[in-house]
Write a structure and sequence with these properties.
The structure is a homodimer. Chain A is mostly helical and about 325 residues long. Chain A has 16 helices and two strands. Chains A and B meet through helix 3, helix 5, helix 6 and helix 7 of A and helix 3, helix 5, helix 6 and helix 7 of B.
Chain lengths: ~325, ~325
């Protein structure tokens, strides 16, 4: 299963979206335009715009407002990725050098701000105030979530509750907003909009837990990133949280001393992986993700069957089985 | 003349603003809240909120909407200053360590995003769509202006026109928006709003040219920053643009070679200052600033006399004579 098959019911709409998106990204300033075109080249699976469109399709059909919502979401998502790469000092993004690697932090911070304000102005121009509210809320939650993560991770002491709160803010918020915006572009039925918002929230949570699991189990050839990188970065995720909770005091001490080692290279991620596996941390995280995926499915159970619903259900499966 | 005397006609309103602003800045997350409280400590002369209030006063009076506009502007301004300090690698801000110096770039980029979205949500909650439009436009222009500056400065080849375009986007845009928002909070008379927008634009341009001049002539004890720092940073401003335009080819070559020297310390700013002075660059920039200040005054000439108008006119004088 690949993502194109999953979102096949909006394949034509995605092509239209891409054309429109390209036009919106065009800028007068030559450097801004150049970086914008590079942002397009770096583009990923465009899963958020696809979710906007599938949600609209489920609620009545794709309209002009749906495309505007998709453009808005993708602009915001691109802006936050650029800032994330600055924040993480990332050198690569989807197989290409990151914006900060090519144009330094200065241009990157400013390009993020530019794309953010570009997205806001685009929605303001069209009086899409409902979208604006959802998206500003998501931006606030994403920055708060990242800050909470840095804050908690530093102390090597994060509870499952805090972890879920972090990934809800950091990842699920924009996915949830995307689905709500898509629904909002097709219907004014508050119950339907809320149902898709929930679907997005649960799917986003399941997605992030699976993503964090891949750091322990993923094939680096498929994921395109080195295994154990979160461990080296001292990002404490669900598998480790569970394992630490179920470890003896001396085991906890051992793991903490590994994670605290000051140099990245010195962190023995293989030992941490072995510990987490033996304590059942991987199985537990997989189980939590399964539960959330189930709730995503339940969220949209009252909608009638059809191509959009099939796609959204397959998207849940896709998130659960992906190895990359 | 100090700034408190200039804005005396809204002194009480500024106190109310500060109380309201503090409440808006409060955050649930303890680290976000801590950094927010530090942002308050670092606060400058709050000239933008004062301008919002003076503009409202001139157009009929300060209302709840005026405070909201002032809060919005100050949130956005704080957000862009935090990102600016990351972009410039600045270690100090108004006599205190910068946010990036205390909490690193990671937290700083995210705090900027947080304050930006906080400001947007605040306006959305109150359905202040007019403010939102003005302010998003300003954010877009600020990021574009900074990028244009980096782009042009790198080539050491910036025309007076490009320079004016950079400072208009980078500095005048938010001052101009502040005045327009203040006016908008008190009247729906489009002519009055446009007049204050112009006033802010001209004042902002004059302010930035004076600021750039202080790099050549300022007393570092008063300005709190080292003289010639723009020269060392290879920021080409109006005095130097004029001087280069009126120099022989060999003089141009000499100055270019000084500016191009790769190590900051090696840049002999005293030689550049002497060159610019001898070519009349300082006198020229002062003259351009005077002309713009005159246009700021003309922009509000049709308003009746009164305390608000007196304050706005004194603000022009303040910008023109300040030595810090």
């Amino acid at each position: 299963m690949n993502i194109k098959d999953v979102t096949a019911s909006v394949a034509d709409e995605i092509v239209v979206f891409q054309q429109k998106y390209k036009l919106v990204l065009h800028a007068r300033n030559t450097l801004v335009d150049k970086v914008s075109r590079y942002v397009l080249k770096q583009q990923g699976k465009q899963i958020r715009p696809a979710m906007v469109m599938l949600s609209a399709q489920l609620c009545g059909g794709v309209s002009d407002a749906t495309y505007r919502a998709a453009i808005m979401v993708e602009l915001l998502h691109s802006a936050t990725l650029i800032h994330d790469d600055v924040v993480d000092g990332a050198e690569m993004r989807r197989g290409l050098p990151s914006i900060n690697a090519l144009w330094k932090n200065k241009i990157s911070v400013l390009m993020g701000d530019y794309l953010l304000s570009r997205g806001l102005l685009y929605s303001l121009e069209h009086k899409d105030y409902g979208f604006l509210h959802l998206v500003s809320e998501a931006v606030r939650r994403m920055s708060e979530g990242e800050i909470l993560q840095i804050q908690k991770t530093r102390s090597l002491d994060i509870s499952e509750e805090d972890y879920l709160s972090v990934i809800s803010d950091k990842t699920a918020s924009l996915i949830s907003s995307s689905c709500a915006m898509g629904a909002m572009s097709a219907t004014s039925d508050e119950e339907k909009i809320a149902a898709l918002k929930s679907y997005g929230e649960y799917l986003g949570l399941a997605f992030q837990i699976r993503d964090d699991l891949l750091d322990y189990t993923g094939d680096s050839k498929k994921t395109g990133k080195q295994m154990g990188i979160d461990i080296k970065d001292k990002k404490i995720t669900l598998p480790l949280i569970f394992a630490l909770r179920n470890a003896s005091l001396s085991e906890q001490k051992m793991i903490r001393s590994i994670l605290k080692s000051s140099r990245k290279r010195a962190v023995k991620s293989s030992e941490v992986i072995a510990f987490v596996t033996s304590k059942g941390g991987l199985a537990y995280a997989a189980e939590v993700a399964e539960g959330l995926a189930g709730q995503a499915v339940t969220s949209i159970s009252s909608f009638p069957d059809g191509p959009a619903k099939t796609s959204l259900l397959r998207l849940v499966d896709f998130v659960m089985i992906r190895q990359y």
